[in-house]
Amino acid sequence: MFGVAHSLTSSPAAVFKATTDVITEFSQDGVVYLELRSTPRQVPSTMTKTQYIQTIIDAILECRQTLNILVKLLVSIDRRQGQKEAEDILDLVVKVNQMYPDIVVGLDLSGDPSQGDFMEFSSVLAEARRYGLKMSIHCAE
């Protein structure tokens, strides 16, 4: 499923459209609070991880103008990608949280629970807490 979604969202324009479409569908279903979760993705020569997250934020901001739904973003850390990647994502989240504290509210530790050791991420999660970020941890999917 994620492979198909990734192939359809390989540019900022596609990420923007997918995000606004998802938010619009939830709003049409009567949802008034939505937490989106997404792992920053880089597409070579098309989009950086920062551009990817900024595009999602831009879509949330646009939807705020016309829809009656409150949308927040939890940026995901895929436990399969290891601690260095988690540290890089935390750095990105801290920066965007400072610019958009009402949108980017925290981290989501996700991915295949049989991959990676939870303790490998404990220092990153502790650092996130020091920044006041909220957390969601998937541990037995």
From TrEMBL:
InterPro entries: A_deaminase_dom (IPR001365), Ado/ade_deaminase (IPR006330), Metal_Hydrolase (IPR032466)
Residues covered by the Adenosine deaminase domain: 4-141
UniProt-listed Gene3D superfamilies: Metal-dependent hydrolases
Top-level division of the source organism's lineage: Eukaryota
GO molecular function, one term: adenosine deaminase activity
GO biological process terms, semicolon-separated: adenosine catabolic process; inosine biosynthetic process; nucleotide metabolic process
Keywords: Hydrolase, Metal-binding, Nucleotide metabolism, Zinc
Catalyzed reaction equations: N(6)-methyl-AMP + H2O + H(+) = IMP + methylamine
SUPFAM superfamilies registered for this protein in UniProt: Metallo-dependent hydrolases
Cofactor dependency: Zn(2+)
Family, as annotated: Belongs to the metallo-dependent hydrolases superfamily. Adenosine and AMP deaminases family.
Protein name in UniProt: Adenosine deaminase domain-containing protein
